[in-house]
Amino acid sequence: MIIMADVFSKEKRSWIMSRIRGRDTKPEMLVRSVVHRMGFRFRLHCRELPGKPDIVLPRHKKVIFVHGCFWHGHKQCLRSRRPTTNTEFWNKKLDANIARDKRVRMNLRRLGWKVLVVWECETSDPDRLFAKLERFLHNG
Fold first, then answer.
1. What pLDDT digit, counting tens, does each position of 52-110 carry?
2. Are strands 43-44 and 55-57 parallel, antiparallel or unpaired?
3. What pLDDT score does 1 carry?
4. Where are the beta strands (DSSP E) in the chain?
5. Does residue 15 belong to any structural domain of this protein?
6. Where does 19-77 have alpha helices with state H?
7. Sign of the alpha-carbon torsion through 83, 89, 91, 96
8. Which in 7, 17, 66, 99 has the greatest CB count within 10 A?
9. Looking at the domain assignment, is residue 7 inside a domain?
10. Distances in Å between the alpha carbon of 115 and those of 35, 104, 136?
11. According to the 3-state scheme, what is the secondary structure of 10-23?
12. By three-state DSSP, how is residue 66 classified?
C-alpha cells in the first residue's frame, strides 16, 4: 500500500473541502431534470421527513436520495476509496454517514415511504439512470 502525503496544506485542504456542496450538486440537478422530464412534480429537501430527502414525490409517497460515492460509501465504486492519511478521522466520519443513511432509509420505510438511492457514479450513464428512475417511479 502506498501512502501519499496530501499535496495541499491543512488550511488549503480545509478550504477545498468547505466548498463541497451538500445540495444542488450536478448529479442531483441531473436526476431532478430526468424526473421532471418524465412528468413528475416534486418537492426538494423536505425538512419534515427524516434525512431531508433530495427529491420528494408526496403524491406517490416516494423519495430519492442522490448520494456522493465518497461521502456515503458506495461499495462498488472507486470514488469511495478512503483516504490513507488521517484514517481514524475519515473512518469515523464516513462510517457515521453510512450508519445515518441506513437509519434514515429505515425510518422513511417505517413511515410508509418508498426510498431510492441514486449514486453519483450512476448519473454518468443517462440510459441506465433513466431506466433506474423509470422502474422506481412507475413500478416500485
1. 999 999 999 999 999 999 989 999 898 888 888 888 998 999 999 999 999 999 999 99
2. antiparallel
3. 46
4. 43-44, 55-57, 62-67, 114-119
5. no
6. 26-37, 69-72
7. negative
8. 66
9. no
10. 15, 10, 9
11. HHHHHHHHHCCCCC
12. strand
Task: Count CB atoms within 10 A of the CB of residue 97.
Answer: 16
Domain of residue 105, CATH code: 3.40.960.10
Range of the domain at 75: 23-138
Which residue type sits at 65?
Answer: F
The type of residue at 97 is N
Q: What is the helix (H) or strand (E) element at residue 93, kind and residue range?
A: helix 87-110
Residue 18 has pLDDT above 90, yes or no: no
82 phi and psi, to 5 degrees? -85, 150
Query: Sign of the C-alpha dihedral, residues 100, 68, 77, 16?
Result: negative
Fill in the DSSP letter of residue 136. H
In a domain, 5, yes or no: no
Task: Report the residue count for the chain.
Answer: 140
The C-alpha cell that represents 88 in the structure block: 481514524
129: enclosing H helix or E strand: helix 126-138
Which of the pair, 17 or 97, is modelled with greater confidence?
97
pTM greater than the 0.90 cutoff: no
